[in-house]
Request: fold
Amino acid sequence: MAFLLLVVAAATVTYAVVASQRHDALLINLAGRQRMLSQQMTWLALAAPDDALLAANRRRFAETLTALEHGGSVLDPSGQRVELPPPDDPAVRAALAEAREAWLRFDAELARAASGEADASLATASLALLDALDRVVAQLAAQAEAKVHRLQIIQASFLLAALLLLGIGYWVVQRRVVNPLAALGAAAARMAAGDLQTPPPTFVEDELHRLSTAFDTLRAEVLASQQQLEARVRQRTQELLTAFEFSQEIAAQLELEQLLHSVTDRARALMAGDAAALCLLDRDAAVLQLAAGSGAGEADLQLRQPVSAALPRQVIGEGRTVVTETACASCGFLRSMAGGQCIATPLRAGEDTLGALCVVRPAKIDFEPEEQAALALLANAAAVAIVNARLVEQGRAQAQQRAIQSERERLAAELHDNLAQTLSFLNLKADQLENAIVNDAENEAVQLLAEMRGATLRAYSQVRAALAGLQAGPRATAALATDLRACVAEMQALTGLTIELMIEDAEALALTPLAHQQALHIVREALTNVWRHAQVRQASVRVQRVADAVRLTVRDEGRGFDPTAVEESGHLGLAIMRARAERSGGALDVHAQPNAGTTIVATFPLHKERCDEPVALIAGRRP
Reply:
């Protein structure tokens, strides 16, 4: 609260002084403007005594001088009217009084000059007025400087008060927090050194009292554990029998992160250790990185150490199970367990070493040979499970990536094939509407607006369906010939092209639902490209059955293009058409030359089940 009040007071005083400084700056600016006005009036009185500006400047000078001397409303240099309070500094008031007297003499000389009686006394009065105004400016500047000095003194006082509060705070924290915690730290050090008879100090404060009580409870429990150690050793044989069950449970897990933590938990439980850690080799098999931990302390997953270090060289390089003191290890995790003993064993799957598994427990409890063998068995089972989990994660990641890519391609194709064509149609109709409005063709304009409204609704439905993944495809029982005729009719209406549709053996052209849909999209996109780029008004669509496939050919006699150049430029339409054909097991070929027309050939495999029953399918029935 003291710091808060100090900061608020400092900010308030500083704000007040800064506001006062702005006011002082305005006064100095106004006084400086008075000096400029006096010089301008002197020149006008000598050069153009009848100029209306001279009278205006006299009025403005008198108004500003009165406001500076007694307070009141006046125009500032920017033309805004401001209110000035009366000056409170005696020196400023005295300087303004002198300026008033000098102004009266100067004004009298200006009056004489206006009547044509100007002489050298005008210049003398002008100089006297300038001197008086300079003294006013000097007094105002001195007043502002005094306020700045007072602000510096106040801020220095606030600084001293802040330092005093810091000193008091340091004393309170040292007495009530730091010193008690140091005493508890010394008690903890004695307990770590093995002195379990001396109780920790007690304190009056609630938090420290609870912490001291917890330390004393811990001391009593450690002492009891020490006395029960021999009984726990006798139980070790029974615990080793459960190692195989642990390894079977670990091997059944497929989530890598959960598996790693489960391995460390099981290893620590199997060895009755204080902590366990699992480290994995990096891709270059040169560095071990902590991947999971269990037990005492927080496992820092950024801990790393080279395989060339002493302990990793024995475990990873030589493939041995090693027992050592934690204080002698170069591993940061083990060194944090000072005063303990650790066992480290390699994680091996066949001939491959994946990393190492280690368990820490008090130095007074040795790791028996049976325990070492049990931990090695657990580590081998864990290594196999890690390999399996990595394969599962890799497969999931690849499947997810493929699904994302497929969905992106589908959405891009839907927007390109549907929305882009509709927008092109709207652009054409907008040009036609503009011409109709210019020509006062009201009926034509109304018709065009109706067509544009329908196209807008189609675009809205297409975007919603594409984003939701709910774009409805053709019915599984629809005939390709029927849908092609509808598609050609729609494109003729939209583009104005004359399109010739030639279908051979219509009843036999049965495709899978996916291929059916993609074929219609390809025909629509190819006809749109004719409308946009070919510069012709005619095109043809030919549908043939070739062996066990359907061949769709879209041909125009337009200006053509270079397919290689277009594909290298990343033309979106051709890429999407080719992707649609390949997605349903088909293929797309582009034959074009500049000034020689364009031919798009899409081939799709027939749906054999439907080819055997064309009549029933066209009728919408199944036998």
